[in-house]
Amino acid sequence: MPFSFLYNRLYRYVRNHYSIELYYTVTVGRRVVIGHQGAIVIHDRAEIGDECVIRQGVTLGASMALRRHASVDRTPAAWRTRRRR
User: Fold this and answer.
1) H or E stretch including 22?
2) Is residue 24 situated within a structural domain?
């Protein structure tokens, strides 16, 4: 019970202060970058792959007709970050 209370308080703080809705059931890969906060909604069954950049105004998983959950992989070039060596 105390952890659910803490989760709800932190979730509401992040949602109201940063305008980011990210549920605890979302699968997030390595090196995921939120480029600019604001109007980002990632629903509970979304999957985000490695090395993705999430920009302002993104909604993942709201109305996917073919799949039950949205998934962003590292193959789209628009979402991928480049490695610096």
Assistant:
1) strand 20-22
2) yes
Residue 29 lies in a domain: yes
Q: Could you list the residue range(s) of the whole structural domain that residue 37 is in? A: 2-72
Whole-number Å distance between alpha carbons of 50 and 56: 19
Name the CA radius of gyration of the chain, rounded.
14
CA angle 72–73–79, rounded 5-degree value: 75
Statement: the pTM of the whole predicted model exceeds 0.70: no
Residue 77: which pLDDT band, with cuts at 50, 70 and 90? very low
Is 83 part of a structural domain of the chain?
no
**Residue type (1 letter), 78:** A
